[in-house]
Design a protein that fits this description.
The protein is α/β, with parallel strands linked by helices. It is built from 10 helices and 17 strands. The strands form 4 sheets. Strands 1-2-4-3-5-8-6-7 form an 8-stranded mixed β-sheet, with helices on both faces. A 4-stranded mixed β-sheet has the order 15-12-11-17, with no helix packed on it. Helix 3 crosses helix 5.
């Protein structure tokens, strides 16, 4: 009997070992993720709530109340972290004046985005990665600039995540540049992000990815009463809003309606986020944003940059855009007491993992093509080495046309690969891979002959 049990145990262990999925985590990124601190996040939220209101139209002269004091405090936090960066992190308030527009700006308004730039160590690498949250808050009336608008979750949570990312990542070196920004004017129709995106377009920034965090700290929903801190949504556009007419023919012809740059970024967020953050499933939402709402990633996608919105799985509308009050036993208002700081910790860690993996990776492979000159049941892809970074090799990614995520990876050290899968039945992409296993964003092949 003992012998029988021993054999059975051996078979079970052998089967378990064969069925294991091995997750390889980069040691530096793993340390960054584990450094995200609930107490730090909570302290940032507490400070932001203490400004009373952060409405974009509120006081900019007070040192303790209003949007002016809030944005100066964020810049001060960034400058505090700059001391540990060996000169790589610099912070400033990027300002512009908006005139009354007859809509959500009724007076000349000096708008300021709190910005910190973590300069890349490779002077030839011009890639830029942006992570944002919006600093401004509101109550029921978006023009009310005096009533208390704590904005703990909307969007103190996103800004807290940005600040924590700057605190942790400023201690490390990356070849590419990372920008941390707390924008203003989101509730006044995306003014701060619109200003930044237009500036980036005009000045020719090479933005490889933009992560917009808006409400990432509440685990529950109104009406449906769902409580869940194990899922996170990533919204991404399908068809590109930028130069769609120019690209529509090839998108239709080759079935690439689900493979725009922002959609590829969303898949990347899911893969890398789930690799480094335990007990979290990242859900891909196939639309640019929610109904009747807008987010700070939108001006970036409208200017041709890959950008996504990261947001909590379930929204509680009793705690969004609400005057502080109690009615029928329900307490309304965006208060800190309604937040889940473990959930915020995990969602902040997702941002750090994605940003770090991108900024450590080589740039994307160049001139990626798939050969279509012959009828065949195999697929031949070829490309050129990336402009920046040292590569260990490349991943050729593959999925069925009906699949939302990449299903197979083929590694090669060459700049070409022929695989026994029909190009008619599958979609492909190619990633550069560093010696430390950091992957670039995937590039969908063009047509080659």
């Amino acid at each position: 009997m003992k012998k029988f049990y021993s054999c059975l145990l051996f078979v079970f262990i052998g089967f378990s070992a064969q069925s294991q999925t091995i997750i390889n985590r980069n040691a530096d990124i793993d340390r960054m993720v584990k450094s995200v601190n609930q107490d730090s996040l909570k302290s940032y939220i507490t400070k932001m709530v203490a400004f009373g209101t952060r409405n974009t139209l509120s006081d900019i002269k007070s040192k303790s109340k209003g949007i002016g004091a809030a944005r100066n405090w964020v810049v001060a936090k960034f400058n505090q972290f700059a001391k540990q960066s060996e000169g790589r992190l610099t912070a400033f308030l990027d300002t512009t004046t908006f005139k009354p527009d007859g809509k959500r700006v009724d007076q000349p308004t000096l708008l300021g985005n709190a910005v910190a730039i973590l300069k890349g160590t490779d002077a030839t690498d011009k890639r830029v990665y942006i992570v944002s949250g919006h600093l401004d808050s509101r109550v029921t009336d978006v023009m009310n600039r005096t009533s208390d608008a704590p904005g703990a979750n909307d969007d103190g949570s996103g800004v807290a995540g940005v600040i924590e990312a700057a605190r942790i990542m400023s201690k490390y070196k990356f070849p590419a540049t990372v920008i941390f920004v707390a924008v203003s004017g989101e509730e006044q129709s995306l003014l701060g992000s619109g200003f930044m995106a237009a500036k980036a377009k005009k000045e020719g920034w090479n933005i490889d990815a933009m992560l917009n965090n808006d409400m990432i700290g509440s685990n529950n929903s109104s009406e449906t009463q769902i409580i869940d801190n194990t899922r996170l949504r990533v919204f991404s556009e399908g068809l590109p809003s930028y130069e769609l007419d120019k690209n529509a023919k090839s998108i239709r012809q080759f079935g690439l309606e689900n493979d725009g740059k922002s959609r590829q970024l969303a898949r990347y967020v899911k893969e890398i986020g789930e690799r480094y953050v335990d007990q979290l499933e990242i859900k891909l939402i196939y639309r640019n944003d929610r109904f009747l709402r807008g987010g700070d990633h939108t001006p970036f996608v409208e200017n041709g940059f890959p950008a996504v919105r990261i947001t909590e799985m379930n929204e509680n509308f009793e705690h969004q855009h609400q005057d502080l009050r109690t009615e029928n036993g329900i307490r309304y208002g965006d208060l800190q007491e309604f937040m889940d700081f473990e959930y915020l910790r995990k969602n902040t860690a997702v941002n750090i993992a994605v940003l770090a993996n991108l900024a450590k990776a080589p740039s994307t492979p160049v001139d990626v093509k798939i050969d279509v000159k012959n009828l065949s049941n195999s697929s031949y892809l070829y490309w050129k080495a990336p402009a920046n970074g040292t590569v260990k090799g490349y991943y050729v990614l593959m999925r069925e046309t009906s699949s939302s995520v990449w299903e197979k990876k083929f590694f090669t050290t060459a700049t070409e690969l022929k695989i026994p899968y029909s190009k008619d039945n599958y979609l492909f992409a190619v990633q550069s891979v560093s010696k430390e296993e950091n992957e670039s964003l995937p590039v969908v092949p063009g047509i080659g002959r």
